[in-house]
Design the sequence.
């Protein structure tokens, strides 16, 4: 991969020539050492492409690790909290992994590609952690982050566009399923996965196919109003859909320098990913103790009164600060002012009424707003298209 410029020294993905040509706003960010667009032309219009037509997001900076060998499944079951043995071939599972204290290090997806062949796709770099955990296992870990690139193709018309690309019978693929095709003589893998809570797919190819894939997608999708989307539009969609983001909603346990800043799966609302019925896994003993004694925090979804996003706000119960907001946005489709918050126990149960202490600036003047908010159950945006099989035609 090439460098974006001598000034930034950030890496670029194999899609960069196409991405840069379409980035009218020239608004760039740093995603794990890669230069990626925050926005292409308009954040709200990019967001509405996800919800109304199709939005395309460059996933290539994600870290991708191939796990193979006779003990691949046993190794992954030791590494993550869920039971990997229940994951079938050509299926994808969401997973988290913890340190010995039961604190979340990262989350990601596990792709089962064969009997003893898996791929971990993660936000954080995890080379050392994955290598340390191989002790006692007949397993091989390969960092294939530069060997596989990907696009998230998300939205109501995504299945139609990918079918025009040659992905026959894609509408029959179930959520979290994987299917395989060829594209110009090279392998093309499609998974029905995404970060938007809507109908969508992730398309994986070798880097030499990147530019041709981008060109054909946008040519075939022109009549279906396909648009590129940046990180800010994706952020809106994932908050609306109820997905967590590392380094935003929780700090990876390996990165923190202050005691008490990490969180367990229970404290992030991810208890459903912890399977105590399977054999030993990292953090199991600590999580059993926490389950018995109770957690320090509760992760809550808040419906905030008004239209001022509660970004970086304190959460109050009466005069007492009981939590902090990690993510917040006014969500256009849900028509709701949503916030994720880490709340000190025993506060934050569904139905609990709290107050968000919001500060916002207009014309160089800072205003303090005390906005009533209520803890709600589950994400407020739920698209039936996300689960519908066959995928609906548009």
Sequence:
């Amino acid at each position: 991969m090439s460098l974006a410029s001598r000034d930034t020294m950030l890496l670029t993905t194999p899609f960069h020539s196409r991405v840069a040509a379409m980035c009218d706003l020239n608004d760039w960010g740093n995603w794990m050492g890669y230069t990626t667009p925050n926005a292409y032309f308009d954040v709200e219009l990019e967001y509405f492409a996800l919800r109304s037509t199709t939005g395309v997001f460059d996933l290539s900076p994600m870290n991708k690790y191939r796990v193979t060998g006779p003990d691949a499944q046993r190794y992954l079951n030791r590494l993550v909290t869920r039971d990997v043995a229940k994951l079938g071939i050509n299926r994808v599972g969401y997973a988290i992994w913890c340190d010995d204290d039961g604190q979340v290090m990262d989350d990601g997806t596990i792709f089962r590609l064969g009997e003893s062949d898996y791929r971990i796709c993660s936000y954080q770099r995890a080379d050392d952690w994955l290598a340390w955990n191989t002790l006692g296992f007949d397993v091989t870990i390969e960092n294939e982050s530069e060997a596989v690139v990907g696009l998230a193709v998300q939205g109501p018309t995504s299945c139609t566009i990918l079918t025009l690309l040659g992905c026959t019978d894609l509408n029959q693929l179930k959520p979290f399923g994987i299917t395989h095709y060829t594209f110009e003589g090279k392998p093309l893998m499609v998974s029905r996965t995404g970060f938007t809570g809507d109908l969508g797919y992730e398309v994986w190819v070798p880097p030499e196919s990147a530019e041709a894939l981008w060109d054909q997608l946008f040519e075939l999708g022109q009549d279906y109003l396909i648009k590129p989307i940046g990180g800010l539009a994706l952020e809106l969609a994932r908050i609306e859909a109820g997905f967590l983001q590392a380094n935003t909603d929780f700090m990876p346990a390996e990165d923190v320098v202050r005691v008490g800043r990490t969180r367990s799966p229970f404290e992030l609302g991810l208890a459903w990913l912890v399977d105590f019925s399977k054999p030993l896994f990292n953090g199991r003993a600590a999580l059993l103790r926490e389950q018995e004694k109770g957690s320090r925090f509760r992760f809550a979804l808040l419906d905030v009164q008004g239209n001022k996003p509660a970004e970086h706000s304190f959460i109050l119960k009466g005069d007492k600060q009981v939590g902090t907001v990690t993510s917040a946005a006014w969500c256009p489709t849900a028509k709701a002012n949503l916030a994720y918050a880490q709340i000190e126990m025993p506060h934050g149960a569904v139905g609990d009424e709290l107050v968000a202490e919001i500060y916002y600036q207009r014309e160089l003047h800072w205003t303090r707003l005390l906005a009533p908010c209520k803890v709600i159950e589950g994400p407020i945006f739920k698209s039936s298209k996300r689960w519908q099989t066959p995928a609906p035609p548009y």
